[in-house]
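Entry:
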Amino acid sequence: MSKKHRAEIGIIGGTGFYDPNFFKNTNVVKVDTPYGETSDLVTLGEYSGTQVAFIPRHGSKHVIPPHRINSRANIWALRELGVTRILSPSVVGSLREELRPGDIVVSDQFIDFTKKRDYTYFDRGRICHISMADPFCPELRQTAISCIKNLNYKVHGNGTYLCIEGPRFSTRAESLFFKDTLKADIIGMTLVPECVLAREAQLCYVSIAMITDYDAWSESPVNTKAVLELLRKNAERTKKVVLELVTNIPSKRDMCNCSTALDSAVI
């Protein structure tokens, strides 16, 4: 990859967050990876003096379902471009009455209920048992929480993200199990293995989850039409959060251990 194709911060845009038209001096590039093609071409651009790389998680036309996202290629491509921090906006359902549609959750934990995804870069040659006790970069989390508060949006600074396989939504029985037995707070389909691969790549990663609905446990089960309607109303907020983060992330990574995650993980 040419040295002119470089970025500091990566953004993997979720549902409703496809268009990087708020960047300046954009350049679209294809990054070859050992794991196949990325979800789409990578858009490189600049915002407030910071070089940014953007990948639409489901493709620019939203044609890739959650279980088919090539997260290994996406994370690999961002690292090849020099990215050290990844911002991951996404949409989720709520498993708590007090976590309302329109609220934003900066998760601190996850529970993995996916089934058949490519979860690691270390599936041959070397064994790696990466630590995921605290799965998100603490510095990015605190920066995200502060930025969202500064924008006067409702933010929850902790929360357990329950990741399911998809693309279907949960049954009511499953949703109640996730809510009452597992005590998860929000539910989505894309966090895993994306955040795990970012840790293996020794990149800082933060999840910024916009709640669009109450899940199937509620009296009004989730449906795609309702999700898209709320997304249209809140797309501008998601963009403002991401741009606020881009301008406030410290230049050096000296408040976390993400860059040395492999030191005690590879056998």
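The domain at 9-260 is CATH 3.40.50.1580 (Rossmann fold).
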